[in-house]
Amino acid sequence: AAITVGLAGVLLFQGALVAALFAAEHRPTLAGDQRLFFYGDAWRAQDEAIAWLATAAPPDAVVATSTPFRVYLSTGLRAVFPPLEADPAEADRLLASVPADYLVVDDLRFIHIAITGRYAEPVVRAFPDRWTLVYGTAGTGARVYRRTR
User: Fold this and answer.
1) Cα–Cα distance between 131 and 124 in angstroms, integer?
2) Nearest-angstrom CA–CA distance, 99 and 58
3) Where in 14-139 does DSSP place strands (E)?
4) Confidence (pLDDT) at 147
5) Which of 9, 79, 112, 130 has its CA 20 to 30 A from that of 20?
6) What is the spatial order of strands in the sheet that 131-137 belongs to?
7) Distance (Å, rounded) from C-alpha 30 to C-alpha 38?
8) Residue pair 130/147 in contact by the 8 Å Cβ criterion
């Protein structure tokens, strides 16, 4: 009886946890959207930045972003990961060698810590004369920077 009650308690707890996560993170999807179950505000901001790129960037532009697959599938623009280089000067040199025209800095939780915050954002901070903010607000949400030639 104790095992049955314990198992029922665990199942009820898991069900309540899934319901709470669903209520907090799920956003309705529209026909044709690429939204997933966990589609929070950071992903929404990322998709809005990608939609902006689709209309503002020339068709031959190269975008450095932590979500190159989404940029390419949504816009047809060539997209790459930012270089995983801790030295901002070397990372900027590598971005120029691609050549990346745009750099997307996002607030996606797991990606921001591993890629954007560690490798892409320091380039923008180190070389503000080379990267101009063209979409978004500095420090919040997804931001798009264009390389100044």
Assistant:
1) 6
2) 14
3) 62-64, 78-80, 102-105, 131-137
4) 96
5) 112
6) 78-80, 62-64, 102-105, 140-147, 131-137
7) 15
8) yes
